[in-house]
Automatic annotation (TrEMBL):
<keyword id="KW-0028">Amino-acid biosynthesis</keyword>
<keyword id="KW-0560">Oxidoreductase</keyword>
<dbReference type="InterPro" id="IPR045865">
    <property type="entry name" value="ACT-like_dom_sf"/>
</dbReference>
<comment type="similarity">
    <text>Belongs to the prephenate/arogenate dehydrogenase family.</text>
</comment>
<dbReference type="InterPro" id="IPR002912">
    <property type="entry name" value="ACT_dom"/>
</dbReference>
<keyword id="KW-0520">NAD</keyword>
<feature type="domain" description="ACT">
    <location>
        <begin position="296"/>
        <end position="362"/>
    </location>
</feature>
<protein>
    <recommendedName>
        <fullName>Prephenate dehydrogenase</fullName>
        <ecNumber>1.3.1.12</ecNumber>
    </recommendedName>
</protein>
<dbReference type="InterPro" id="IPR008927">
    <property type="entry name" value="6-PGluconate_DH-like_C_sf"/>
</dbReference>
<dbReference type="InterPro" id="IPR003099">
    <property type="entry name" value="Prephen_DH"/>
</dbReference>
<dbReference type="InterPro" id="IPR036291">
    <property type="entry name" value="NAD(P)-bd_dom_sf"/>
</dbReference>
<comment type="pathway">
    <text>Amino-acid biosynthesis; L-tyrosine biosynthesis; (4-hydroxyphenyl)pyruvate from prephenate (NAD(+) route): step 1/1.</text>
</comment>
<dbReference type="InterPro" id="IPR046826">
    <property type="entry name" value="PDH_N"/>
</dbReference>
<keyword id="KW-0057">Aromatic amino acid biosynthesis</keyword>
<dbReference type="Pfam" id="PF20463">
    <property type="entry name" value="PDH_C"/>
</dbReference>
<dbReference type="InterPro" id="IPR050812">
    <property type="entry name" value="Preph/Arog_dehydrog"/>
</dbReference>
<dbReference type="GO" id="GO:0008977">
    <property type="term" value="F:prephenate dehydrogenase (NAD+) activity"/>
</dbReference>
Length: 362
């Protein structure tokens, strides 16, 4: 293993060896950090250890400098309380996707939270488990740190060191700010995507066969674990319900305008709502966190080994920087579509140069 210099000092104990916990372990192990792991399931611990996420903790181990709680949201407060009691010298953090509910519950119990620093890496995958873990899961992803005025500088520095070692981009928020924010950018999209995908269940095979990139884009996260999301949404219900009510009002407004599009003002209302979507999507950070927009060119690719590699090689030879890539397959045909994002000023040249090399473009 080629170890990178670690900012994190001391050993780290991870409680919960699923996707996030195992990914934390894998990433820290690449930096040479001693990581021990714990989980209610011995099989999960053994699997995470086999993948290199750490080693099972033993009674002979020295106390950890940091404990990372990576358990499901419905037990995170219990595990944080136990970790603070079990490791009285350690800093404790968690990576739960909801911050206010466990903080309030621990405060209600009278738990001393001086050594606790809540955090949340904005990273994940549609499927969980140690088998899906990746050392680079958190690279270039926002990592929210929720501290208060009582947080010791050393405790804050240790949690920040772990986030930085794992490639995260540090952001400070209060628990309230965090939960409102993730309600908008994570929890509401999950509900909308799932409800949209649910409309596909009774659809005919013929209709499903027309599926294109738009449907795949808007339903990708609908494959997420329902049991986990029941916990997340329940813990952050107030912001999510508020957002859903506002979203439902927009849907109702849109449907009413579309019901009679010839009525005075209806077309303008439809256009206004669609234009609001344009303005909203323009605010989503792009490459390297910038708001720069790209032009998409579509190249037809034969479904044969080596074609994508050849296309990418030729783009490099032409001096065209690919900002993003998405592959789409045509149902029932031995052909695919490579949707390549490029800077607007090079799009026309890219199409012309690729055509000269025999590529078919759209």
């Amino acid at each position: 293993m080629n170890e990178l210099a670690a900012r994190t000092s001391g050993s780290v104990h991870v409680i919960g060896a699923g996707l996030l916990g195992a990914s934390v372990g894998l990433g820290l192990r690449e930096h040479g950090v001693d990581v021990t792991i714990e989980d209610l399931s011995p099989t999960t611990v053994a699997l995470a250890a086999d993948y290199g996420a750490g080693r099972p903790r033993s009674a002979a181990d020295d106390p950890p400098a940091l404990v990372v709680v990576a358990t499901p949201p419905d037990v995170v407060a219990d595990v944080i309380e136990r970790a603070l009691a079990s490791y009285p010298e350690a800093v404790v953090t968690d990576v739960a996707s909801v911050k206010l509910a466990p903080f309030r519950e621990l405060t209600r119990r009278g738990v001393d939270l001086t050594r606790y620093v809540g955090s949340h890496p904005m990273a994940g995958r549609e499927r969980g488990g140690a088998i899906m873990a990746r050392a680079d899961l958190f690279t270039a992803r926002p990592w929210v740190i929720c501290r208060d005025h009582e947080t010791p500088a050393a405790a804050l520095a240790l949690v920040e060191s772990v986030a930085l070692d794992l490639g995260g981009v540090l952001i400070e928020m209060t628990p309230e700010e965090h939960d409102r924010s993730v309600g908008l950018v994570s929890h509401l999209p999950q509900v909308v995507s799932s409800l949209l995908a649910a409309r596909l269940e009774p659809a005919s095979d013929q209709a499903i066969g027309l599926t294109g990139a738009g449907l795949r884009d808007t339903t990708r996260i609908a494959a997420s674990d329902p049991e986990l999301w029941v916990q997340i949404l329940g813990a952050n219900r107030a912001p999510v319900v508020e957002l859903l009510d506002a979203f439902a009002a927009d849907v109702a407004d849109f449907a009413e305008a579309l019901r009679d599009p010839e009525r005075a003002g209806a077309k303008r209302r439809i256009a206004d709502l669609l234009s609001a979507g344009n303005r909203g999507v323009a605010r989503i950070p792009g490459k390297h966190g910038s708001s720069e927009r790209f032009t998409t060119i579509t190249v037809l690719v034969d479904d044969r080994p080596g074609q994508i590699a050849r296309l990418l090689t030729e783009l490099g030879e032409l001096g065209i920087n690919m900002e993003d890539l998405r592959l789409e397959h045509s149902p029932g045909a031995q052909i695919g579509f490579a949707e390549i994002a490029v800077l607007p000023e090079v799009a026309e040249r890219a199409l012309s140069d690729l055509a000269e090399r025999g590529w078919r473009t759209l």
